[in-house]
Amino acid sequence: MNKLFTDVAENAAYVLSFFAIIVALFVVALLLEKAARKKNNVTEPIFGTRKIAMIGMFSAIAMILHLFDFPLPFAPGFYKLDFSELPILVGTFAFGPTAGVMMEFVKILLKLCIKGTSTAFVGDLANFVIGCSFILPASVIYTFHKSKKSAVIGCVAGTLCMTVFGTAFNAIYLLPAFSKLFHMSLEDILAMGSAINPLMTEGSIVSFVVACVAPMNLIKGASVSLVTLLVYKPLSPIIKEGRR
Question: Distance between CA atoms of 8 and 111, rounded to whole angstroms?
Fold first, then answer.
């Protein structure tokens, strides 16, 4: 915990920008959810006691899954796959996009308190914004029209958004940030990718993210979407009302 406070103090400007992004995404989710509730004539409050308790529970489950990340054979070892978005997507379908952004934030906050950060918050910001790029499109589409068809469309849209955004975000921001953080040249990082992935063109950041990052996001989005579509309907009454 002391190390975490030290990291926060040393990277105060970055942490403030991190919180600004969190607030911006929360506001966007809140506005979209209010529009959907108005369209569907929903009058109950956005946050109730049970919903807040369930947000905490789903966030804790997501944090535990986040700790069990693992590398993939076609990407360098610092890229790891986890399925922490599974409970968050289920909870977001049940409680709306605003709750989803809150769950993503609480997940990262819990992870930082328990494990700290090994990337000066760069990886934590990436996990948060890329996770939101998945759950927000999926949940917004489902919130406007709650049906099995819209859930499928939302999951497909969320997976595609996460893949496109995550790939571009890595090329534009993450890889240069990791290069600076770990005092490595960008060429050395790209060489790590070309050494294990024959589909990558040596020295090309575009082929790096297309060959190493995009497939990882597709696998994650497709897996989380499939499981969510299978379990959400039977779990929904238990999640929302505490009954079978």
Answer: 14
The structure tokens listed for 234 are: 């039977």
Taking 3-state DSSP, the helix, strand and coil percentages for the chain, each rounded to the nearest 5, stand at 80, 0, 20
Q: Measure the CA–CA gap between 104 and 159, rounded to whole angstroms.
A: 16
201-210 mean pLDDT: 87
Q: Are 231 and 89 in contact (CB under 8 A)?
A: no
DSSP state of 68: S
pLDDT tens figures, 164-180 = 999 999 998 888 887 87
- Residues 243 and 150: their CA atoms lie apart, in Å, by 25
What are the angstrom distances between the C-alpha of 9 and each of 6, 82, 119, 121, 220? Answer: 5, 28, 15, 12, 33
Contact between 172 and 186 under an 8 Å Cβ cutoff? The reply is no
* DSSP string over 9-44: HHTHHHHHHHHHHHHHHHHHHHHHHHHHHHHTT--S
pLDDT at 108: 92
